[in-house]
Design brief:
alpha+beta, Transferase(Phosphotransferase), domain 1, 16% strand, 46% helix, single chain
Length: 652
């Protein structure tokens, strides 16, 4: 819907969009000032839960009056469009700032202190933000910080709350809005990841994660998939900051690690304590900078010649003025307990050892020669291998010459489910196909023909594409599969099967896919372990599978309301269709219908044996987290999934 004005605001340009709303730069025609105008997505205006959350954002933020919190001017609705008018921030998000250049320590501390100050105000009012991350922190040109988006905030009692965040992991793992990356999942606290009761200390953790990322340029908890990240948050300790930057003061290391204690009782108990330590460190560093300016250059040179800096020395006031001396080893820098740390890296120890033992140099040289020879041999061997477990394969749309539309899209989806059972194969997902088509200035709904598939492969660096076709031969059908080298156009592997009657098509397609997996290089043991029949892990009904495929197409396009009746139709045709229930649960979750999502998730779990191993893991994890609240079991399932399918970004 194109808008030029709403209420007294003239819309100037679109600034961005998110899960619930679109944000525009607008002009307040009455007061003559620029504002940020957030409109609730039109499709969600009938959703009471989402509308309530949209209104909550305005109520929560407007209850706070603080220079580091976004100011809300007005909320209202006109012609059914709900809006929030807020101050316009002429600046960049912290996420954008992190992508431009490394942040110096002074800027890091300034941003962290301002965010902490905003959180202190919110916590004093009994409000937990719950979604502190770089995308929700704006920095003006003058360095002034504003905290945004209280849409997930919770109002709490002044004492410890019993509020739980049971949907945190579900939001992080199953939301499929276009362009969504790791986002919130990297910044959630362990108690959020496990669905346990949360309080203000969850914001302290999230700010600790942001502080770590500002100081090092790297998030503390990473992984190739969202699942890996959630498991790491729940079970792994972050790397020391000094691994990424040797210039990190020991005091900052101590502060960050205290904020990131998994046990909330060992973490900072209030954001005020957190902010106080940050301010002390900032003051010490500012004093040190002034001191460096005041000490004669020859004195600084003598310190440098001794391999020292002012950080490594103790400042003393003597009758003759300022002097410096090396402090005792036992002294903790900055007065922070446990802050003294050994700075030598493992690389420095190795270099030192090689210098001391010349024989090691000869051994190392020989090792380099052997390694180089091995690389040359392996490269030669690899060049002769048609396909490996490191390669990605793109599925083209089936060529259907039967004249029967029931096969349109259906066979491609069935083939994708069958092949995705394999840990050996990395299937280029439909979401990534749509993104690639957009990048090529094509419609995201364009058919992926052989020519289009090859162009996508060239642009995305994909090694192989899989072509499929079905043709009629009287009452019989002929199904052909061919894996093609995208660079050369040469055939890697082919498989053809003839089937008697339409009801046998899915079964025959599954058999052909299994044989093709072996020809592509997957071990027989892997195929036998991960090779449930298509009709078992999807449905034996072609009509149900077609309805599901059409629903998936709408789902992938972000048309959630249109996807719901199609998934429900698939379930009507086969009420044991586990994947359809799982997809329906995802769409309900994305549209804020959380109770319906839980019901569908429970049904998917009931029929989980009618899903592939990969999807069964996701169904089970979603059930434990969203239905029964057994969050440790959920983490266990996600852990198994990430180890079994290490290249998966998402379960579907």
């Amino acid at each position: 819907m194109e808008l030029s004005t709403i209420s007294r605001y003239r819309i100037l340009e679109k600034l961005g969009s998110g899960g619930m709303g679109e944000v525009y730069l607008a002009e307040d025609m009455r007061l003559g000032r620029k504002v940020a105008l957030k409109l609730l997505v039109e499709d969600l205006t009938e959703n009471r839960e989402r509308l309530g959350r949209f209104d909550q954002e305005a109520y929560t933020a407007s209850a706070l009056n603080h220079p580091n919190i976004l100011t809300i001017y007005e909320m209202g609705d006109e012609a059914g469009r709900h809006f929030i008018a807020a101050e316009y921030i002429d600046g960049v998000t912290l996420r954008r700032r992190l992508t431009t250049s490394p942040m110096d320590l002074s800027e890091v501390l300034s941003v962290a202190i301002q965010v902490a100050d905003a959180l202190e105000e919110a916590h004093a009012a009994g409000i937990i933000h719950r979604d502190i991350k770089p995308e929700n922190i704006m920095i003006r040109r003058n360095g002034h910080v504003k905290v945004l988006d209280f849409g997930l905030a919770k109002l709490t009692e002044r004492t410890v709350t019993e509020e739980t965040d049971t949907e945190a992991v579900t939001r992080a793992l199953v939301q499929t809005d276009a362009g969504m990356v790791l986002g919130t999942s990297q910044y959630m606290s362990p108690e959020q990841a496990r669905g346990k009761p949360i309080d203000a200390r969850t914001d302290i953790w999230s700010l600790g994660v942001v502080l770590y990322e500002m100081a090092t340029g790297h998030p503390p908890f990473t992984g190739e998939t969202k699942t890996d990240v959630v498991v790491a948050i729940a079970r792994s300790d972050p790397q020391p900051l000094t691994r990424f930057s040797r210039n990190v003061p020991a005091e900052l290391e101590w502060i960050v690690m205290k904020a990131l204690r998994k046990n909330v009782e060992e973490r900072y108990q209030t954001v005020k304590e957190f902010e106080s330590d940050l301010k002390k460190l900032k003051q010490r560093l500012e004093f040190q900078t002034e001191l460096e300016r005041s000490i004669p250059p020859d004195r600084l040179s003598s310190l440098a010649a001794a391999g020292l800096t002012l950080t490594d020395t103790e400042i003393q006031i003597t009758p003759s003025g300022l002097s410096t001396s090396v402090p005792p080893e036992s002294r903790s820098p900055g007065g922070f307990p446990g802050a003294a740390q050994t700075r030598a890296s493992s690389a420095e120890y190795i270099v030192s050892g090689i210098k001391q033992h010349k024989a090691v140099v000869a051994i190392a040289a020989m090792a380099v020669v052997l390694a180089a020879s091995a690389i040359i041999y392996w490269s030669s061997f690899r060049s002769r291998v048609a396909f490996t477990d490191k390669d990605t394969i793109l599925l083209a749309d089936f060529v259907n010459t039967t004249g029967d539309s029931v096969f349109d899209g259906t066979l491609k989806q069935a083939l994708a489910v069958q092949l995705r059972q394999s840990p050996f194969l990395d299937i280029f997902s439909e979401d990534r196909v749509r993104d690639a088509l957009k990048f090529m200035n094509r419609s995201p709904d364009e058919r992926v023909t052989r020519e289009v598939a090859r162009e996508i492969c060239e642009r995305q660096g994909i090694k192989a594409m899989l072509l499929g076709s079905i043709s009629g031969l009287g009452s019989h059908y002929v199904i052909s599969l061919e894996a093609v080298n995208a660079n050369t156009g040469d055939s890697i592997a082919t498989e053809q099967v003839e089937t008697d009657g339409k009801e046998q098509v899915l079964k025959s397609l599954g058999q052909a896919a299994s044989k093709l997996r072996e020809k592509l290089g997957e071990s027989l043991g892997s195929i036998q372990k991960f090779d449930a029949p298509i009709e078992q892990v999807t449905t034996s009904s072609l009509d149900a599978l077609r309805a599901y495929s059409m629903g998936l197409e709408q789902h992938s396009s972000g048309n959630y309301p249109q996807a719901i009746p199609l998934y429900k139709r698939a379930i009507e045709l086969d009420n044991n269709f586990a994947i359809a229930y799982a997809r329906l649960a995802t769409v309900y979750n994305n549209t804020g219908k959380f109770e319906l999502s839980r019901e569908a998730s429970a049904k998917a779990y009931e029929f989980r044996d009618r899903a592939s191993q990969r999807e069964k893991l996701f169904v089970t994890a979603s059930y434990y987290g969203g239905v029964t609240g057994e969050w440790d079991k959920q983490i266990d399932q996600l852990d198994v999934w990430s180890h079994t399918y290490p290249r998966d970004w998402e379960p579907f």
